Amino acid sequence: MSIELRKQLFEQLDQIVLVDPHSHINPLSPASTTLADILGYHYYTELSHSAGMPKDQIEEPGLDPKEKVRRLVENFGPIENTIQYSWFIEFAQKMFGFADERLTTSNWEALYDSAAERMACDDWEETVLRESKLEGVFLTNDFDDPLEGFDTSRYIPCLRTDDLVFHLAKLPVAERLENATGISISGRATLESALDKLFDHFVGKGARACAISLPPDFAPHFVSENRADVAIKNILGKGLEADPNDRHAAANFVFWSLAERCRQHKLPFDLMIGVNRGVYETGVFQGQDLYDSRVSLIQYRQLFNAFREVTFPVSVLASVTNQELVSYSWIFPNVVANGHWWYSNTPAYIEHDLAARLEAIPQTKVIGYYSDMYKLEFGMPKFAMFKRILAKVLAERFVIDRGWSEDRALELGRTVLRGNVESIFQLES
Amino acid sequence: MSIELRKQLFEQLDQIVLVDPHSHINPLSPASTTLADILGYHYYTELSHSAGMPKDQIEEPGLDPKEKVRRLVENFGPIENTIQYSWFIEFAQKMFGFADERLTTSNWEALYDSAAERMACDDWEETVLRESKLEGVFLTNDFDDPLEGFDTSRYIPCLRTDDLVFHLAKLPVAERLENATGISISGRATLESALDKLFDHFVGKGARACAISLPPDFAPHFVSENRADVAIKNILGKGLEADPNDRHAAANFVFWSLAERCRQHKLPFDLMIGVNRGVYETGVFQGQDLYDSRVSLIQYRQLFNAFREVTFPVSVLASVTNQELVSYSWIFPNVVANGHWWYSNTPAYIEHDLAARLEAIPQTKVIGYYSDMYKLEFGMPKFAMFKRILAKVLAERFVIDRGWSEDRALELGRTVLRGNVESIFQLES
Amino acid sequence: MSIELRKQLFEQLDQIVLVDPHSHINPLSPASTTLADILGYHYYTELSHSAGMPKDQIEEPGLDPKEKVRRLVENFGPIENTIQYSWFIEFAQKMFGFADERLTTSNWEALYDSAAERMACDDWEETVLRESKLEGVFLTNDFDDPLEGFDTSRYIPCLRTDDLVFHLAKLPVAERLENATGISISGRATLESALDKLFDHFVGKGARACAISLPPDFAPHFVSENRADVAIKNILGKGLEADPNDRHAAANFVFWSLAERCRQHKLPFDLMIGVNRGVYETGVFQGQDLYDSRVSLIQYRQLFNAFREVTFPVSVLASVTNQELVSYSWIFPNVVANGHWWYSNTPAYIEHDLAARLEAIPQTKVIGYYSDMYKLEFGMPKFAMFKRILAKVLAERFVIDRGWSEDRALELGRTVLRGNVESIFQLES
């Protein structure tokens, strides 16, 4: 009964046209042109490297795309079990008519060539979006992104702020900020003016969120203007040589100032909590970050209390933090559970985390899923994975365990998949 | 097979008459008189507030009960998915003949009125207890509760000690202690005499447990009499201005002294570990507490070793601490796993935590469930939720996975639901 | 469908002849001679003690084996629910023809006697291994073990190093090291020579791994030769009175030196992370250790980066650390997930942890299971428990959820059960 029911629910959920509330798409080049774009996704390079493929074989400068794919495929045996591998196969089957279950040294080249042909069609981007049932995709824009040359109603700007908070002591970051805003930054006041300008620019271009990823030891707190002024002057003057206390104070001040501007502009502030950068020092590109799961949302207590008018869609990196996310979303009106991030974006963790969210957080405060994709081709299989798990949770825990009708379960599914993205990010639909 | 089996097991388990080993029932007013008593439960007010309902609409002074329910119902859409919502619906269906699946602006008033009528009957309390299959309910009594005016064999006293341990520096608490005991408290010795008097009073009135809730950073340790005397004198003299070290030492001394008296009087000492009070500063009444899940039972190492004759029924707030609870109950003879507390009292967490307990803790050391209820009406649906999950775990993990007979599974179910409450709290049955 | 499928997969997996990559078998006395050897396993004594049996009844000096079993059986009621109890029953049913489901005061003696008779047969060891489908078993050898008197291709040596790292300040340990190596240890250089000698001895005898168990607060780091020399001289001179900083530096130096020798000798270094020793001070033998689950693999960041050529099969004590293990194995080429250790070796945790591993770690980097057994009789039921859970995960999460064929699922099962033990520990097969 449950398997058939899951299938039925999935098919219904799969009809819904979605907006993806977080991705790393480059709107000037959203889709892939060869399989190397797809298989170059860090999920594949890092898993292949983890399974023994030397980094220099993957990242050899000037490597021809086809040769890169050949090398990766040769080393794909060890990762065939992973859910990440299944994303590729599912996409290739659906969009390229790939008929096999594994990519091998015998079948990769034909797929490479036929895929390249398909991807060369003018309508490839449209086709992928349509077949993926995506009508909007949130971006992750550097603060100095001009946000030009693309349709901002399809590719929705989102101000990413890691650099501003954590890397302002680096000269190039400060320079980029000056260039982007035309403001010469000499201290607290000018920095705030620059932030104002960034927000005006982003909001003017249709940005619907501000976002940041945060290390596990970050615990934001208020910093006075005077203390901030000293700290900012010191980090601008001394750069990475500045006193760590000044870097710390400046980071907290900038973070707090961003939250204030989110309040002014009614922008949700996506918090992605828990990543340590560069833990595996010599890993492949984007395959070096890990975490310390000993993080608590209690670290955000002062923030959540201080900014009651700002909605914080919160993502946590580790499933062990999910119950805190459930509880904080259950208590704080401004805390919302947001998707299944990175190392928690695998079925066993999604299933456990999602079940807990759907039974204890108000249904209007759960954002089901975002793809986090770098190329459009991953939207379809990643959302499909999520929708299958959502269907499983709805079937097993609502229809069977709680006696809900299928319709009522689907209604809940629609709310977390689509409705909440619209309402929380204030999309006009 | 499994769904039918679960149903059969549930029906058997649901026949057992139970004693609820932890609640917040007021024995002088145990049942509700209107739906406002039921829907005023913090689970509903805090979820509604979290979903956007302003606090002042919920807690307006002098608000008419019916108007309160009207307002809550108007804002109930967002929480219809929650398990807490299902408790209300299940109770209303069973006890008030409510025929719908949702409480709406169209059907609430008729329910309100018919419920008020039912609840006005003289036998409502008896009816609720009988239909809920509860013959005894543990209370949570302030240390200065006279414990009079009710049947202590039905409503079983339990000495709650948070105030004594953590708030003795507050003048009203010290005064209440003096008033309750008739002892003028000037230092360590008189405080101990007062504690002796409290225990004599509670034990004389049939108390069957001592209980306390503890913040995640508490790590109890022995404090010498001399150090305690200094600390207690200082906190009595300086109140909240006292040196934090003195408050800390006094808290630890009182806690240790309570454990000693539990040993003398052979009372189990319920430890409810992990709550931070007032995290959401402006939340609704009883909807402000959260937690830092970074807590470990290793913090109780000294206590568990020092008081081998005291049974400690331990509740943990977060599911991530459950495995420690399983392991500590498996090793320490005096540690017992107790129910599913608060933020872990939702099906996904109960299921995972219960399965782990039933397969690795001696069956005599698992207390299945307590309701934590404030009004009798919640005993039925909360226990029903637990019994369904217990039936699921027994069906899937014992009958199916381990080949047990249904009878053997039911025997285990009975032990954790009823038998252990009797044996651990020494109830004469 | 799923139950039948699980059964089919289990039957296939159960045909595979295995090598057990971690045990505490004494190769000079690998099998039991009476039920007292089996039921004396700490899992039974500690659970019985936890359920109320006094330690002195279990550990009475000179206690007759049969009387010991009689006493344990009398106290077995409370632990009949545990998975540990089921290991004994399953073995007794399969190997001794035990026909009951419980061991009681009425049936134990007949079993005791018939078992003693069976175990007295010359071929008992062979029979147990054959019926358990084990052809090799890794040992846990003290560093001064002569490794003589047994077949090292069946009982594969493994250098256990806890004493060297954490207890070198104890005079008997230093003396054992001098006796084992013939080197008089006076400082850093002579200690390193002694380590070289140990590795030469172990590798010469066919050792296939180095192993250590580590407390939750250990965070290994590099120590310079000069600092190490001072530290080692001080701990050799002052023993347990030495400055804790010196003990700390020496422990880190020895640990780092062991990793260097693993690199030189191409030995995997098993890290078993998270145990606190002696937490329950008066517990039964081997029933005193617990843990603080607040541990992170980030503590091993420097180690994993420094020793890229060393494979680290990592076991974690608590399931809350499993996701970190999944993620670190997914990123670091030299980190491998190893079995389900001790307090995580129960079905609910194995199932959750295994599912997460199989969907996100390259399949070549998951070592399915080790028995951790002290007597051969436990290999069969412990591996059977794991194989049933593996069959469940493969059936539910691969065949059903992901549409895999049974053959493909079995291939994955074989890899983690057998293939990876061979490849990671470089067994010639």
From TrEMBL, chains A, B, C:
Pfam family, one: UxaC
UniProt KW keywords: Hydrolase
GO biological processes: glucuronate catabolic process
Example GO molecular function: glucuronate isomerase activity
Domain of life of the organism encoding this protein: Bacteria
Annotated Gene3D superfamilies: Metal-dependent hydrolases, uronate isomerase, domain 2, chain A
Official protein name in the record: Amidohydrolase
